[in-house]
Amino acid sequence: MVDDGFYGQKPSQHGFDYDLIVIGGGSGGLAMGKKAAKLGAEVCLMDFVKPSPAGSTWGLGGTCVNVGCIPKKLYHTAALLAEGVGDAVDYGWKAADKGMVDWATLRLNVQRHIKSLNFGYRTQLSKIKNESEGKVDYKNGLAVIKDAHTVEYTNKRGKVATTTAARILVSVGGRPKPLDCPGGELAISSDDIFSLEEAPGKTLVVGGGYVALECAGFLAGLGYEVTVLVRSILLRGFDRECVDRVQRSLEQAGVSLRIGVLPESLEKGADGKITVQTSQGALEGFDTVLAATGRAPDTAALGLDDLGVEKKPNGKVASTHEQTNVPNVYTIGDCTFDSYLELTPVAIQAGELLAERLYGGAGAGGGAAAAGDHLGAVHDALVDKEEALREEAPQCLPGRAQLLRAPALVELRLEHV
């Protein structure tokens, strides 16, 4: 890592308002901001969520907390509970028919849980001032980098202000790619599915990655008819044995997988139903179309190009050990073109390690294998791909285990609506 000239200096010494400005209040940005403050740095954390095309927005915490890991696991748990009702007879229970989920109740309680997490993050930031020499000032504003030390931000009322720092961290994450075909604006994304006012009903999911299949899995488990259009193969880059098991579980759950089929246009009829023209004919009668064809880094409007920060063709910020080609500008998380995976625990660790290096004197970190999981119709997890293990460490033996259902339940305070 290149010495950016600010090691060990406090605001009164370097002349800027803060030691660090963090742009993006997701898992990585929060981890970096909190750790840096606990090490004595004065931090300004800026976060702003532009509404999705369907109008969805949310609070502090980033993708994982608001529209990713947390709600996904809760909806998956709801689907497992429905499946458990059907299994109960085998364990001696005289179970009633599982019926249909009350979407409004599920949505309300999940959103309340998420809002409690948003509030918790705000509270944590305010407490840091009382626990260390550093601090984190939170600003709900849309940030644009004006020069190597200056950030302009606009709040939700349109008021514009600027502030400065010795260092800037870019941790803005990514947003779903829109469906690129005529009528694609009729599709929602994973940013919208967890806050839908009305039940999704008969759903078409477009995509073959983990977001697409996880959504398909819990929607089918909740009792909705689900079809998935997949361009080529399922879960590219995942261990193929795991992929085969995921595919079987989805099909057993009633999900219709249409592999090698692409959407060509969407059209909504007078009855509100969506017809999808595909490369193999028309599919009709959908209440919801969910586009999950990948995510793109949310870096286009940050001002990085004017500053001269190098970006890759896909929009991700180039870096070496989280440092960009502009020495005092750093980047972590899903917006970063680096060697680590797009996983929440990885972003958190990257943020904490970077804070240690900048404010605690630790050396540069490195990547390693990270555990991952997939919540489809079943919960599948892996630490590394078996094929890679055999090539890189032939002395190691891969292991597998199939567990009985034991979902980790998060308590929701149920409110029936």
UniProtKB/TrEMBL annotation:
Is the keyword NADP in the record? no
Q: Which cofactor does it need?
A: FAD
Domain (FAD/NAD(P)-binding): residue spans on this chain = 18-351
The record's annotation in PROSITE patterns points to: PYRIDINE_REDOX_1
> Cross-referenced Pfam families, in alphabetical order?
Pyr_redox_2 (PF07992)
Molecular function GO labels: flavin adenine dinucleotide binding; glutathione-disulfide reductase (NADPH) activity
Q: What are its GO biological-process terms?
A: cell redox homeostasis; cellular response to oxidative stress; glutathione metabolic process
An annotated GO cellular component of this protein is:
mitochondrion
**Please, which domain of life does this record's source organism belong to?**
Eukaryota
Question: What keyword terms does UniProt attach to this protein?
Answer: Disulfide bond, FAD, Flavoprotein, Oxidoreductase, Redox-active center
Q: Which family does it belong to?
A: Belongs to the class-I pyridine nucleotide-disulfide oxidoreductase family.
Q: What is the protein name given in its UniProt record?
A: FAD/NAD(P)-binding domain-containing protein
Which species? Phaeomonas parva
